[in-house]
């Protein structure tokens, strides 16, 4: 692939720069994006249908991450001395994070700037060149970012190739040094299988089925507002959006009433709180989930199949939906929220964790220590307490999931290291006091080394008691 060949040459120049030089280029790019953000927001709006305000918010978040990656790469990745330890006391030791080379980034359409830049910015800041394949639904947004790069930096360190899945597959086969894929778990599996053939490492940022847990002591107004924002915002097309809500039974009717009052008053539209569904096929998935939930005995609280008026889907709130319905097991990716009652927070945790996805979750409770304990028990890559998506705007925090939500991390120090190769270097700094790493080693030296080894590591060893063995 021509773009990868060009990127490989540009990568040599880019990797050879000092951190501060790369930082200057990245900050130039950032300034161009920020200065022309209205223009970029218009492109996002045309391609995805999201309101201009949401597009601007997305750009603001993405730029915050770009700025952080540019400013922190040196601190996180630069060479550092490490202790060599007793066994290798004769060696000096240092660790350095080197660039991988060329990173292939494959992006989705729902946040066509924020999501891919989570990989692109951190990969560039770590000293790699990038070939970015945006979603076939948002090619002009991708091209806009590359053209802003050309204006700011010039060298083809960031390039964009457009096309559908076939273009993505070609990029995976093009001999890049790592693939950063964001999209559905199903495509993630295909991408990973292709990467396996060449042992190309891969980051998978997959979908989600995020749960919100509402404790009886929660601020119900705040929880309902957050459920509406997390569930309906961006027409529900958010990987870490709220799709399931588990509410303690004593406050369940009250919470439902407050969420319903918000949902009933939402009118999607170009200037509305959210816009059209970006991809027509997604409307069918949403319809399928709503129909299945109702057919299995779920209750309509706000809207239902009649809320689906393509290209818009009005908010849908369903209650008491069986846990095995597709609306609870699969990613809906539409402005629908299912709210189910639970008898305890333990039950809420167990239901939240029963999903094959594990991207993020939110917990509403007045008791922060208890909420933190719940967060630790959740099988997710992120959790927000008394807010939704709180982590998205904190560049220092890594982002990624478990299970069908994928693996690997973008953002934060972990995101920079994800696109780096740790290189360990040692150097002989003095004559070894006990040279055991030699074919001609003196047996007396090995004896002494073994004595010291046992003193250090075997002292205090207790044979397991008879009782223990029988247990
Ligand atoms: P998708 O899986 O259909 O496509 C994602 C990208 O993969 C597109 O660019 C597509 O062209 C490309 N692609 C398709 N087939 C390919 C192949 N065989 N080889 C290589 N590339 C291929 O996903 P989508 O519908 O564009 O995006 C929505 C999904 O993305 C949702 O599941 C959402 O939750 C997820 N998502 C996850 C995150 C995250 O950070 N975890 C962020 C945003 C979106």
Strand tally, please? Answer: 20
Strand content: 15-25%
Structural class: alpha/beta
* CATH-assigned fold name of the largest domain: Aldehyde Dehydrogenase, Chain A, domain 1
> C-alpha Rg, in Å?
26 Å
Helical coverage, percent range? 40-55%
* Ligand catalogue: nicotinamide-adenine-dinucleotide
The CATH class of the largest domain is identified as Alpha Beta
Proper CATH architecture of the largest domain: 3-Layer(aba) Sandwich
Shape: globular
> What gap, in angstroms, lies between the N and C termini?
62 Å
* Main sheet overview: 7 strands, mixed
Number of helices: 17
CATH superfamily of the largest domain: Aldehyde Dehydrogenase, Chain A, domain 1
Q: What is the count of structural domains?
A: 2
- Spatial order of strands in the largest sheet: 10-13-14-9-8-16-17
**Average pLDDT metric:** 96
Oligomeric state: single chain
Give structural notes.
With about 475 residues, the chain is of the alpha/beta class. The protein has 2 domains: about 1-205 and about 410-420, 3-Layer(aba) Sandwich (Aldehyde Dehydrogenase, Chain A, domain 1); about 210-395, Aldehyde Dehydrogenase, Chain A, domain 2 (3-Layer(aba) Sandwich), CATH 3.40.309.10. The chain has 17 helices and 20 strands. The strands form 5 sheets. It has a 7-stranded mixed sheet with strand order 10-13-14-9-8-16-17, sandwiched between helices. Strands 5-4-3-6-7-19 form a 6-stranded mixed sheet, with helices on both faces. It has a 3-stranded antiparallel sheet with strand order 1-2-20. Strand 3, helix 5 and strand 4 (about 130-135) form a beta-alpha-beta unit. Helix 3 (about 35-50) runs antiparallel to helix 6 and helix 4 (about 50-75) crosses helix 15 (about 410-420). The chain is globular, with a radius of gyration of 26 Å. The termini are far apart. Bound molecules: nicotinamide-adenine-dinucleotide. The site of nicotinamide-adenine-dinucleotide has 30 residues, from helix 7 and helix 8.
